[in-house]
């Protein structure tokens, strides 16, 4: 049996987050992704975004985000229906242990463009994703760098509980960085 690659919009629901929606990634998002993810502050707050952002990285991200099947669902925080910009940031759910255990759990990841920091965008996006639970998870996990307490507040405001300390490699920083790990049990 072969798995066909299909468009993400056919596989992912649009999620209402109040002032904006979470929608599947479009090819037209690549330019704003490159601009926002190319900002050192955004890249250094993530595990995987390099800085400087290499040519073609945003387009590669878009291609990966729209292909199906995938182990990660990625949404754009889109404010265009409320007179906000079309791309405010990105949020994702990456399935964990699907092939081996299928424990119905995923890891939440997100970033918001610096122009929209401290406006409650990340909090609204995470809460909307938790409420919608589009992958029918029993648990969601998240990890934030310890030097980013704002992201920790986003998680605790959405009902995530602290699990413990760890560390992970940041591509942009070129180093291992201390993290806090959180869990949100669902259903």
Structure commentary:
The protein is built from 6 helices and 8 strands; from the N terminus they run αββαααβββαβαββ. The chain is globular. With 187 residues, it is an alpha+beta fold. Strands 1-2-3-4-5-6-8-7 form an 8-stranded mixed beta sheet, with helices on one face. 25% of the residues lie in helices and 30% in strands.
Question: What's the main sheet like?
Answer: 8 strands, mixed
Low-confidence stretches: 1-8
Into which percentage range does the β-strand content fall?
A: 25-35%
Biggest sheet strand line-up? 1-2-3-4-5-6-8-7
Helix/strand-derived category reads alpha+beta
Give the averaged pLDDT, no decimals.
92
Q: Roughly how many Å is the radius of gyration?
A: 16 Å
Helix content: 25-40%
Compute the separation of the termini in Å: 33 Å
In brief, what are we looking at here?
InterPro entries: Acyl_CoA_acyltransferase, GNAT_dom. The chain is an alpha+beta fold. It is about 25% helix and about 30% strand.
Which short descriptors sum up this protein?
globular, 8-stranded mixed β-sheet, alpha+beta, disordered N terminus, 187 residues, 8 strands
What topology emerges from the helices and strands here?
Elements: H1 8-11, E1 15-16, E2 21-24, H2 30-37, H3 40-43, H4 57-66, E3 72-78, E4 89-96, E5 105-112, H5 121-132, E6 139-145, H6 149-157, E7 161-170, E8 175-185
Helix pairs in contact: 2-4, 5-6
